[in-house]
């Protein structure tokens, strides 16, 4: 099961620098000119989770395996992208393939790094990108209307459903409201997803600030936080420059000392990764034994058999039950046997909704 976040924004806001730091590679060339990233670079990163080590220490596992999230570095967008300006068509095609958007906004001044709009104004930049995505969505939906109307007249149930969703979404977009704000019923979610709308994707704003503001942000990032709150979105503060330097340090202790010297408790990238994970409405469950302690990812609301299927399709097909322990009980009582003795291990059937932090052992028969 793969989940990915597309890193987007105007040129020269720090997208590729952030991507390089995230993936600890030099895979994306960072340069002081637009469109240095032409093909989308892709990297997978481990999701930081301190629970893994605590579980592993108790079970004395030989190794620890984190769950991962995929990041896609997408070419910079410019005003007019919806009409093909710059690398617009390619940008829009690439972003259509991701599950969520991390929108990098430049919140720092630097006369040595040019800005395509001439000055630094992150709210304007956010609106520029959002407008281009909405225009692209409008064009995509308007092209569908005539064909759907003809099919709907023929009493096609699916066409009627799609036409209703298209018309409702177009009303929103024409009012300057992104598609993700449309209230979609459970019955309509699958059909709505088939529309593949750019503005239906959840958004996280990453405020790229100067080193001195990496801890608490600055006046520009505060404006972004206010905008995000008004949208029901999330924002995080990160200094791509600092993160790039941190990513080049191999030793964990050295990284911690470097961050501490800057007054930082953790890497900004850890906040970005966790926020991206949350943005996708994902939760983590664990399996643990002498060989390994491993984190697995499922959507919030997943049932026991679906979680089992993440490990192997046979587990889902032949699911019988899951021996389940809450993380807090596992740690506080000191492991599986102590949990059993305390009567805290649960036998969960096919309708059980997996909780974040569950430690699970699946019983199946195929």
Briefly say what this structure is:
With 366 residues, the chain is of the alpha/beta class.
Characteristic key phrases:
366 residues, alpha/beta, 6-stranded mixed beta sheet, 12 strands
How large is the count of helical segments?
14
Percentage beta strand: 15-25%
Average pLDDT:
86
Q: Identify the overall geometry.
A: flat
User: Pairing-aware structural class of the strands and helices?
Assistant: alpha/beta
- Rounded to an integer in angstroms, the radius of gyration calculated over CA atoms is 23 Å
Helix content: 40-55%
Span of the ends, CA to CA: 22 Å
What is the β-strand count? Answer: 12
Q: What order do the SSEs take from the amino end to the carboxyl end, as H and E?
A: EHEHEEHEHHHEHEHHHEEHHEHHEE
Structural notes for this entry:
The chain is flat, with a radius of gyration of 23 Å. It has 366 residues and is α/β, with parallel strands linked by helices. The chain is built from 14 helices and twelve strands. Helix 7 links the parallel strand 6 and strand 7 (234-238). A six-stranded mixed β-sheet has the order 2-4-1-5-6-7, with helices on both faces. Strands 3-9-8 form a three-stranded mixed β-sheet, sandwiched between helices.
